[in-house]
Amino acid sequence: MLARPPFEWNLTGNPIFVHLISSYQTTLLQLAKTNFGEIFASWIHLKALRIFVESVLRYGLPPDFAAMAVKPKHKMDRKAREVLNTQYGHLGGIHGQQVQSKSGDADEALEQQYQSLFDNDYHPYVFFDVRWDPERK
Q1: CB 65 within 8 A of CB 55
Q2: Is residue 46 within 8 Å of residue 85, measured between CB atoms?
């Protein structure tokens, strides 16, 4: 029995396949451009809904809060979070505030350390990160 050579697709040489691929690529690009705005708006609406639900769960009813978007300058994320933590630290209870003195209540310091073990990304305010880079290829 003769061994058959493995089958290989040669799409670059056939003009029919080249035309099909370019038409599919054009159609896909048109669909992506058309639907991107709706998908992005839906994504932002989901973020807004999460902010509302998290705020009600954290601070209770009736809902009385202000939602805002903050875009810090390049490499200023940590500084912006520190400023927000100092401004709104009183909303987070013992976990949102720093222990003031070393001679303070040891139980409160221990409780704060215990809470930070389980939730390292806790903020005294509701925080959702929207990572989107329009120039990413």
Answers
A1: yes
A2: no
* R_g over Cα of the chain: 27
In degrees and rounded to multiples of 5, residue 53 shows phi and psi of: -65, -45
In 3D space, the residue among 84, 81, 55, 83 whose CA is nearest the CA of residue 67 turns out to be 55
Residue 84 is predicted with a pLDDT of 83
- Which amino acid is it at 98? Q
Coil, strand or helix: which one is 44? helix
Share of the chain above pLDDT 70, in %: 69
For residue 50, give the nearest of 130, 117, 106 by alpha carbon.
130
11 and 21 Cβ atoms separated by less than 8 Å:
yes
The 3-class secondary structure across the chain, one letter per residue, is CCCCCCCCCCCCCCHHHHHHHHHHHHHHHHHHHHHHHHHHHHHHHHHHHHHHHHHHHHHCCCCCCCCCCCCCCCCCHHHHHHHHHHHHHHHHHHHHCCCCCCCCCHHHHHHHHHHHHHCCCCCCCCCCCCCCCCCCC
**pTM value?**
0.56
Q: For residue 72, what is the DSSP state? A: P
